[in-house]
């Protein structure tokens, strides 16, 4: 009995230590979350669309399957309901904890859904987006252990969600302040395109406010894009964007939180007349990234995450909505 109690105490104590922040970085002992991000390279995981409001049970199943196939990290995309429900982010984080996969909850700062909606008078940053940032922050405070980092917006500079980079930065700093009151030090960033940063004017406040750089990198949208697996277009475009981020990162870590190549052009139209959106083209891009595991991602210490898990982002999944693989995907997690 005594032994059992001591064991229980040890476990409880161990968990308390883990939960008490800087040293627990969702499932890697001895490293802070930021150090863990810095150490990551190669394929890391998936972008996961939460618009269909899957249950904790369903999300746990998805995360278990991703993990069984090598994924270590998931970033959310879109939002469930109004996106301002702390309870739903609690569910997402709980599911990640169940599967022991690291989660990057993303606060959706575009006031509307990305596609097929027009703006109404209430679709403003203050009315729609700020409550989502607050909800994500609260859910992370409720259950920080599975959380690797927080994304404040998907392409918030590209879409100018907050009205100015300075306004966006002030919300990032507010999240940091609230986390720190809760005793947490969780890396913050925005998930954006090189073009988003390049086209936004005075980006210094945002560049100063982020702890690392989450990169949306999509050679599919390039003007010279052809097939996903074409190294001379896709790969060149990919590394050009990374070089831009390296130029503003000042040594801070870089993680490609969103990259991919769709199997159709339905949700996001391309810019190149020679584009090929098909299963072989998508597979070719996946394998192209994997082929640079050693020569690029490892030497640069950069991880990449695929958009998306399933086709709820139409065409972008490694799986159809019925759950079957589009091709037999796998990628190295070490090299
Ligand atoms: C905007 O929000 C107000 C206050 O909640 C509500 O009364 C109004 O119906 C909303 N307008 C639209 C167009 O949704
Ligand atoms: C930070 O905490 C304050 C005080 O509880 C709250 O009013 C504010 O909405 C919070 N902001 C965020 C981004 O969580
Ligand atoms: C690969 O991309 C290059 C540069 O855009 C282009 O010239 C070439 O035709 C492409 N090859 C194929 C097979 O599409
Ligand atoms: C799933 O959907 C795809 C695309 O519609 C189809 O080709 C495939 O046969 C389906 N798989 C199953 C198991 O139904």
TrEMBL record:
Highest taxon in the source lineage: Eukaryota
UniProt-listed Enzyme Commission number(s): 3.2.1.39
Keywords of this entry: Carbohydrate metabolism, Cell membrane, Cell wall biogenesis/degradation, Glycoprotein, Hydrolase, Membrane, Polysaccharide degradation, Signal
Top-tier EC class: hydrolase
Residues making up the signal peptide according to the UniProt record: 1-16
UniProt-recorded Gene Ontology molecular function terms: hydrolase activity
The reaction(s) this protein catalyses: Hydrolysis of (1->3)-beta-D-glucosidic linkages in (1->3)-beta-D-glucans
InterPro entries: Beta-glucan_modifiers, GH
Membrane topology: Single-pass type II membrane protein
Entry's localization field: Cell membrane
Family: Belongs to the glycosyl hydrolase 17 family.
Biological role stated in the UniProt entry: Glucanases play a role in cell expansion during growth, in cell-cell fusion during mating, and in spore release during sporulation. This enzyme may be involved in beta-glucan degradation. Active on laminarin and lichenan.
Protein name: glucan endo-1,3-beta-D-glucosidase
């Amino acid at each position: 009995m005594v032994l059992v109690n001591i064991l229980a105490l040890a476990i409880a104590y161990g968990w308390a230590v883990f939960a008490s922040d800087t040293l627990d970085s969702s499932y890697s002992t001895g490293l802070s979350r930021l150090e863990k991000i810095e150490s990551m390279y190669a394929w890391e995981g998936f972008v996961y669309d939460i618009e269909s409001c899957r249950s904790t049970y369903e999300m746990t199943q998805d995360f278990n399957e991703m993990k069984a196939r090598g994924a270590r990290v998931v970033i959310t995309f879109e939002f469930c309901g109004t996106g301002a429900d702390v309870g739903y982010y609690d569910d997402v984080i709980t599911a990640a904890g169940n599967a022991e996969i690291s989660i990057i909850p993303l606060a959706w700062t575009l006031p509307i859904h990305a596609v097929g909606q027009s703006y109404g008078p209430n679709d403003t940053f203050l009315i729609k987006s700020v409550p989502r940032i607050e909800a994500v922050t609260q859910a992370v405070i409720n259950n920080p252990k599975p959380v690797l980092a927080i994304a404040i917006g998907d392409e918030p500079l590209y879409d100018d969600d907050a009205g100015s980079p300075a306004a966006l930065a002030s919300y990032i700093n507010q999240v940091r302040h609230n986390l720190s009151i809760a005793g947490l030090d969780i890396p913050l960033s925005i998930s954006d395109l090189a073009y988003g940063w390049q086209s936004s004017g005075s980006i210094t406040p945002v560049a100063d406010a982020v702890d690392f750089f989450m990169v949306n990198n999509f050679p599919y949208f390039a003007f010279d894009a052809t097939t996903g697996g074409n190294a001379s277009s896709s790969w060149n475009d990919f590394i050009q964007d990374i070089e831009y981020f390296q130029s503003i990162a000042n040594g801070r870590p870089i993680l490609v939180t969103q990259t991919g190549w769709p199997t159709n052009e339905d949700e996001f139209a391309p810019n190149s007349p020679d584009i090929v959106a098909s299963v072989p083209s998508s597979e070719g891009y996946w394998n192209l990234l994997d082929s640079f595991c050693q020569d690029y991602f490892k030497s640069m210490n950069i991880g990449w995450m695929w958009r998306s898990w399933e086709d709820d982002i139409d065409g972008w999944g490694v799986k159809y909505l019925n759950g079957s693989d589009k091709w037999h995907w796998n990628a190295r997690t070490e090299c």
